[in-house]
Amino acid sequence: MDDVFKALADPTRRELLDELFKEDGQTLSTLEARLPMTRFGVMKHLKVLEEAGLVVTKKRGREKLHFLNPVPIRLVHDRWVSKYAEPWTALLSGIKQTLENKMEKVFEIYIKTTPELLWKAITDPEMRSKYNFGLWVTSDWTAGSSFQGVVPEAGSSMPKVQTPHTVACGGGLPEPKSPGTRILEGENLEVDPPRRMVQSFRALWSDEAKAEGTSRVTWEIQQIGDSCRLSVTHDQLREGANAQLYGGWPMILSGLKTLLETGELLTTPGSLQFMAR
Description:
By secondary structure, this protein is α+β, with helices and mostly antiparallel strands. It folds into 2 domains: 2-68, Arc Repressor Mutant, subunit A (Orthogonal Bundle), CATH 1.10.10.10; 71-275, Alpha-D-Glucose-1,6-Bisphosphate, Chain A, domain 4, CATH 3.30.530.20.
């Protein structure tokens, strides 16, 4: 976390983050044109931001695009701020914001765990509900299969999740024992456990979210020493897409990190929703 504070201490680096906040996915040349300094100077500042995890890069053909990664800032918030602040404030302000450019949002976080445990936390409905707004996401997690996300009614329970083997034998996907609300659905386009999963994503939790149609979410896990780097890319978003679709990712990923590293839940909406059930 020291790297984050060091990176944010410099006004030029804060200006670079401001530029990426205004327009995500910019090239080095574009960022250089926005600042009164040499290309080498911009590269040095971007390197510090990348080392702090505040900027992540993606190759697109011959271009290298830079994306703002808000997850480290969210971790700072969760450690010192969320205990005292109204937990829904961040969620509501995220819902209010919209962006005017075609968007591809990239989120990255390092978690001290194994790829297998991280994959389980993403695909196991009970584990995921503990950091993902109380949501039970069920599927057989094979390429071409569907998935659904259901929030059970207060006081209701979910059955034990069937394995891909029982599904293949005609078991079908688990359903809530009592009525719940389906708030998202999609298809597993690519599944390569425990390294990569690509999903179509359709939000159903509001009329505004439904109107956004289908986007895409890519999960990528890379083992680095005794930890894993998890990258979540949410793309194929229309121009000006409603921030409801992607605004919760920083809270979800910080809750996932805390759950796997400490076994505890965060006092953020992503985790509090589970505790409220």
